[in-house]
């Protein structure tokens, strides 16, 4: 297999969202909402269990009235906001405006940290002449996150679900990424953390490599294994 393209998931693969407690504390401080510390911890735990933090833990259960929008949340910006603010509203917070503020916070570059080996791996792939795309189920433009952390110059293309109206594991999103890179799916590897969504690339003939969705400090070098999967990587664009 001659690898000419590498497709990467965003959340849980190249970047990790801040903790639910950090997310909530930032919004409370900005809104000058005074909440006892023990209540902040309780609210954060409840929001996490509800699956309200995009890029965070999945919900323990999806309320029946949100099942429809939750299933298609990554197909459009409005759907994404409605799904996640809806999940957050399952947790009673002190002020109603906090729900939209929480959603807005998660889109800020400062809310995300790249995995420690992401710059090294993306840079080495570029050095080898492998073209790189980010393929993400998401409802907003993540390019500013890559720019803020200095990784945008290492990415050739972005295939974002809300821009295409389809979400992984639909093969059309992976095909869009391959088309943008100008590589055949059989010459590409998909790297992600979701066995169901990211493994959908295999239907096109892409090789699939999965990593664990862990906090940044608990996963310092998992992406480096990708380089070992590419003994036949192209040496020219």
Automatic annotation (TrEMBL):
One of its GO terms (molecular function) is hydrolase activity. InterPro entries: HAD-like_sf, HAD-SF_hydro_IA, HAD_sf. Keywords: Hydrolase. It comes from the Bacteria. The keyword Hydrolase applies. SUPFAM superfamilies: HAD-like. Pfam families: Hydrolase. The keyword Hydrolase applies. NCBIfam families: HAD-SF-IA-v1. This is HAD-superfamily hydrolase, subfamily IA, variant 1. It comes from Streptomyces violaceusniger (strain Tu 4113).
């Amino acid at each position: 297999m001659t690898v000419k393209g590498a497709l990467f998931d965003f959340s849980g693969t190249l970047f990790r969202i801040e903790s639910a407690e950090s997310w909530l504390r930032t919004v409370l401080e900005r809104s000058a909402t005074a909440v006892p510390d023990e209540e902040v911890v309780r609210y954060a735990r409840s929001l996490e269990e509800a699956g309200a933090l995009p890029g965070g833990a999945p919900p323990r259960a999806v309320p029946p009235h949100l099942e429809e929008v939750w299933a298609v949340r990554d197909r459009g910006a409005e759907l994404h906001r409605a799904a996640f603010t809806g999940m957050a509203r399952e947790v009673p917070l002190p002020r109603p405006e906090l729900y939209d503020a929480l959603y807005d916070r998660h889109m800020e570059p400062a809310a995300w940290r790249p995995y420690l080996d992401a710059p090294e791996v993306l840079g080495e792939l570029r050095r080898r002449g492998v073209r790189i795309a980010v393929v993400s189920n998401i409802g907003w433009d993540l390019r500013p996150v890559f720019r803020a952390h200095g990784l945008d110059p290492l990415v050739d293309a972005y295939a974002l679900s809300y821009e295409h109206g389809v979400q992984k594991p639909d093969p059309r999103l992976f095909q869009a990424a391959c088309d943008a890179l100008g590589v055949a799916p059989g010459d590409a590897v998909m790297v992600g953390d979701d066995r169901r969504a990211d493994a959908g690339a295999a239907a096109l003939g892409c090789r699939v490599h999965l990593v664990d969705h862990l906090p940044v400090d608990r996963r310092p070098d998992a992406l480096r294994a990708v380089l070992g999967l590419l003994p036949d990587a192209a040496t020219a664009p």
